[in-house]
Amino acid sequence: EQLWIWNFDEERLFYDNYEMVRFQVVDEEWHDQAPAGPSQADDAPPKTPYRIKASMAADGLGVCLWWDGA
Predict the structure, then answer these.
(1) Residue limits of the RNA polymerase III subunit Rpc25 domain (predicted)?
(2) Which residues pair with 50 in a beta bridge?
(3) Where exactly are the structural domains of the chain?
């Protein structure tokens, strides 16, 4: 079975794939996607145009079921 288990203070918290979560955006990165000209061909793989870095390491964050009724 594909799932994550977070061991926290002697308690096991389960996170299944596709489960609704709350998270906090920590950072975001924008990368220009302008095409390179023929003389500027680059063999490096292209960067993702937009990337969000997030965390679930705070009170009230993580799997929504963990906090329902809390």
Answers:
(1) 1-67
(2) 30
(3) 20-32+47-70
